[in-house]
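Worked example

This section walks through a single chain of length 94. The input is the sequence exactly as stored; nothing has been trimmed or padded.
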Amino acid sequence: MATSRREVRIPWTSRHALLERLGGVSREKEIFEAFDRAGTSQSVVLEPVDKHMLLAVIQFWIAEVSLAGLPEGIDDLQSALIDDARDRGMTSLR
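Given that input, the structure is written out below as tokens.
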């Protein structure tokens, strides 16, 4: 996934688990479409609002399972999304 500071890669199984967590959230369709467009070889490019929604989903996930319970790479993705949000002027994160 492309963020403001870096690109984050997560394993396919982690990607699948993350997308399962999106069920029923606002902008689910737009986020799924971005992942579909990227396929397996390109970076996922999301609109800022979609990055924020994805970050919220990850943070709720952490509240349920703790950082240690996340699939590989999701914690790194969360950190990159927080940096991205801060770079866009959001300061009330983490």
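What to look for: The two ends are 20 Å apart (CA to CA).
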